[in-house]
Design goal:
36% of the residues lie in helices and 31% in strands.
Length: 173
């Protein structure tokens, strides 16, 4: 399939394949894996929290597709198994690329895989001499550490988000 992008990472090969309708359960699982923490303090029962999560999930999906029509919406697979999601808007010659969404299954986090995947994608943008931007929640300490280690710098605070930018090293002559 020509739509599949293979990345060689420090943690092994991964495939980025376009999302399909049958991926909805996986996408919801990925969304729920981090969004449920945000609702933990809400004084509501589990059924109300689940309804809120479903509503937020639908809103996120619709918003991403409307705001980033040129983006690739990919499922990350390793050894044929889905392990996460990556959404990247390519930007343009004058606008930086944008990492819209990146999430791994909880059991794949904190293993270096996320950093390896993002580093491999950044290497492609480095070859093009292109900047990359992203927004993360200000309280998301693991993502902030990963981004700092990869060379992202804070350029703007838009509570509750922080916008970061990565600038490629100068191209060799």
């Amino acid at each position: 399939m020509s739509d599949i992008v293979w990345l060689e990472t420090a943690k092994g090969a991964v495939a980025l394949r376009p999302e399909r309708p049958e991926d909805e359960a996986l996408l919801y699982r990925l969304f729920r894996s981090w969004a449920l923490d945000e609702l933990a303090l809400l004084p509501a029962d589990d059924a109300v929290k689940e309804a809120l999560l479903r509503f937020q999930f639908g809103g996120q999906m619709a918003t991403y597709r409307a705001r980033f029509p040129a983006a690739r919406f990919d499922i990350i697979e390793q050894a044929g198994e889905p392990v996460g999601r990556l959404v990247v808007d390519p930007g343009s010659e004058t606008e930086p690329a944008c990492f819209v969404d990146f999430v791994l299954l909880p059991e794949r986090r904190n293993s270096g895989l996320g950093r390896a995947i993002i580093a491999a994608v950044l290497a492609d943008y480095a070859r093009l001499g292109r900047k990359v931007r992203l927004k993360i929640l200000g309280h998301n300490a693991p993502s902030r550490r990963m981004c700092a280690a990869l060379g992202f710098a804070e350029i703007e605070e838009q509570p509750p988000f922080i916008q970061l930018e990565w600038t490629p090293p100068p191209l060799s002559a």
